[in-house]
Structure formats: C-alpha cells, structure tokens
Write a structure and sequence with these properties.
This protein is an alpha/beta fold and about 450 residues long. About 35% of the residues lie in helices and about 25% in strands. The strands form four sheets. Strands 3-2-1-4-5-6-17 form a seven-stranded parallel β-sheet, with helices on both faces. The protein starts with a strand and ends with a strand.
C-alpha cells in the first residue's frame, strides 16, 4: 500500500483528489487528505474507501512531520508561503514533492540538497504556472527539431467567468483564491519586446489594456506576468526577440482595476481602523475627499474621467459609494476591498467558470515566417468542479500517478515541468481527460 499525502482541501483540490481516488484501488493507494477544515476534507473524500482524513495544523511541526513521514509522495495545495514547511519535511524524510506554485527563493535555495538526496521537488505543476510550461516546451522543442528559428513567443492565460454565468459589469467572479486577485501585479513585470527589455511598474500594469482575439471568444485584454525574462533559458529561447507571459481578463476588468490601483484601494501596507466606518467613508479617507464634495465628481476628477464614464459605473457596482458598514477591525485597504468583492463576485452554485490559455509563436523555417497559434478553452461544470480546479489539480495528480506506478523516473532537483520525460506523458493524459489544445498555423 502506497500513501499519497494531499495537503490542502480547498477550491483547487477537487479533481486532484478525485483522480487519485478513482485510480487508488487498482494501484493500492491510500489517499490522505490533510487540511484544517474537517468539513472540506469530508466533502472531497465523500467516504471513499481509499481515502483517509487528517485534520491538522500545518504550523504544528509534530503533526506535519508525522504525515510526511508516512507518505510515499506529497502533493501540496497549501498557500504558497507554506510549501516550504512541507518541503523541509520532505527533504528530512526523503519524499518527492509536487506543488502548483511558483518556485520561491527559499525553495530554490534547497536545490543542491534536494539533488544530493535524489529527490524530485516539482514546482509550477498546475495551470499557470504548469500547463503553460509544458505546452510551450512541447511547441518550442518541435520547432527546434525542424531547425526553426523562433523570433516571438507570447503566452496568455486567464481564469474567467463562462459567458452563460457572466452577470456583472466587471465580467469576473472568483474561481480561485480571491486574495491573489487583490495582489496581482504588485511586483511589477518584465518582458522582452523587439529585442528590448520592458519594465512595467505596478501603477501602470493595468492601464495599457491591450486586446487579444481568441477564436470563439469575445475580445479579451491582458496584462504582463511578473518576470517573463527568467524563463528565457528554461524555454531554451535565449536569443528570441519578443517574449512575454501575460494574464487574460475582459477589457472592462482591466480598466476598473486600473482605477482601483490608482485610488490606492489595493494597498497592502496601510492600516485602517474600520470601527464605525462605511464603504464610502473609507473611500473618502483614501482619496482625500471632503464630506461636502460629491464623491462621483471627486473620483471622476481624480481619475481624469467624465462623470458618466463606464469606470465610474464599475466602481458603483461594487458598492464603493454606499454607506454600508464595514466589518470592525484593523486591516489594510486591500483586505477591505476584498471584503467588498467577495460579496459581489462570489460564484453561485450553478455558475460556471472558464479557463483560457493561448500561445502565439512566430518562427522562421526555410526562409518562410510561420505563425502558430495554440489555444485551450475549458468550461467548468459548476460548484467545486470548476475548470480552474481541473486544470490546476490534474497535472499534479497525473505526475504523482506516473511516479508511483514507475511509468516515469522522477527527475532530480527543484524543478519546473519543462523536460520531455515529464510533459509528454502528462499532456497525453490531460488530453485524454478533456484538457486539450487546438492549433492553427498561418
């Protein structure tokens, strides 16, 4: 009997756990789902005979180590800053680890020790990062094989609301960790355009609102992701002229979010005493608006927009101008904004989300320029069976299955899934499970 430890029973874990449980009996697996929320664990396991519940506090070293020690492999869906705790235990007890999050500096610093121990710590094994790395590597390697010279690579991904469930002017609802939306773009972004490095500060991240057309969808907008440049060597495109990774949203979202940033409402560093405060009083305080001033006039002037601009309507739709009492306490503006948005952008039980990923590659082959577009559009089934959960969780589950059944020899080190030995079988199984791309060549 092999023990699989799944740490985290949140939104992204549904398909991961179901995939492992479905294959547990034939492979003699015991799937241990660990979380602080017993009800969440119970929902995910649904009394499956191959499942085991483990209610734990991840910060409790004794509880955490006991679970890791029992495991044959560890899959972490915990918040990104907590992966390192499991990683340290995995190194101590010599267990392979899979996460869906970006490689942190702390995790990267463990690479030599992980290699020496002969372990696989596979990070960025979800959707974005994850499926984007695997599909990009597959395309890039196929072009290199025919001696093609890649001049431009653009990769876009977004977790969106499906058109049939789109009923607010922002065209957005929370299908994953809401806090990540608030902090998106805060570190700024770097990418390559026509041979020149472009640096975008947070304050300008959403104001460009560039558009992109993907087959079968209305026009989408995008903003650049973090540091695209660090992937140049990993993708083996060090001499490329244009390279950018970006997040997809609808155009109205980017315009509205740009306003929130400029008004300081996403600030993570201030401290606001909300006792007796309302949405409107907080907004007035943040934007230095006198109580006698008309708030819409003030905000319009501050954003240099007409009073009837669509952006003012977007702000109005999330109740910023209302005298609604805020939860009492001391919190930053970003968290206050989050409390407003969680109410307005909550996914109803019958709402469906949509994941979109799109690659645009230009390359030269035998003197001819070729454009290759590769797209994936996937809708969720509603409730906890979201497209986001499917695309984040299944790559992790598939890799774990391949390793445990010895169909894949785990590569060694703190890694991303850019090697053929990993992405080929994982993408094949994802396609079998309905996560597939459509390619167009011009």
């Amino acid at each position: 009997m092999q023990n699989i430890l799944v740490a985290g029973a949140g939104k992204s874990s549904t398909y991961l756990i179901e995939y492992l449980l479905t294959n547990a009996s034939k492979n003699k697996w015991n799937v241990i789902v660990a979380d602080g929320d017993s009800a969440a664990i119970a929902r995910k396991l649904n009394r499956h005979p191959s499942g085991e519940a483990a209610v734990f506090d991840i910060n409790n070293k004794a509880q955490r180590e006991a679970l890791v020690k029992r495991a044959d492999i560890v899959l972490s869906l915990m918040p990104p800053h907590l992966h390192i705790l499991l990683a340290q235990d995995c190194l101590k007890y010599k267990k392979n680890l899979i996460t869906s999050s970006y490689i942190s500096d702390e995790m990267k610093a463990m690479d030599a020790a992980v290699r020496e121990a002969g372990l696989m710590f596979m990070c960025e094994m979800g959707l974005d990062p994850g499926i984007d790395h695997m599909t990009a590597s597959k395309i890039i390697n196929s072009i290199h094989k025919v001696a093609g010279r890649i001049t431009s690579f653009k990769s876009y991904c977004g977790g969106l609301i499906a058109p049939e469930s789109d009923d607010n002017p922002w065209h957005y609802k929370f299908s994953w960790n809401p806090k990540n939306i608030i902090t998106a773009g805060m570190g700024g972004a770097k990418y390559l355009h026509n041979g020149k490095q472009v640096d975008v500060p947070y304050e300008k991240m959403f104001e460009q609102n560039k558009k992109i057309k993907i087959p079968g969808l209305n026009a989408l907008a995008f903003y650049p992701n973090r540091d695209s440049l660090k992937y140049l060597d990993l993708y083996d495109v060090a001499s490329i002229k244009t390279f950018v990774r970006a997040t997809l949203r609808y155009p109205s979202f980017c315009r509205g979010w740009d306003a929130l940033v400029k008004l300081g409402l996403t600030d993570q560093t201030d401290l606001v005493d909300t006792k007796g405060a309302t949405n409107l009083s907080w907004l007035r305080s943040k934007t230095a608006c006198d109580a006698k001033q008309d708030i819409r006039d003030h905000i319009s002037a501050k954003l240099d927009l007409p009073k009837d601009d669509k952006v003012i309507g977007l702000l109005e739709s999330i109740d910023l101008f209302e005298e609604k009492t805020l939860p009492a306490g001391t919190m930053c503006s970003g968290d206050i904004l989050l409390t407003l948005l969680q109410e307005k952008w909550r996914m109803a039980d019958d709402d469906k989300d949509m994941v979109v990923m799109h690659h645009e590659i230009e390359y030269e082959h035998k003197g001819r320029m070729i454009n290759l577009n590769s797209s994936m559009v996937l809708k969720g089934e509603g409730g906890e069976h979201s497209a986001m959960a499917r695309t984040v969780g299944m790559p992790m589950a598939i890799l774990a299955s391949l390793v445990l059944t010895k169909k894949l020899k785990p590569p060694v080190g703190v890694l991303l899934p850019v090697m053929q030995s990993v992405y080929r079988p994982v993408l094949r199984e994802l396609e079998y499970n309905g996560i597939l791309f459509t390619d167009e060549v011009e």
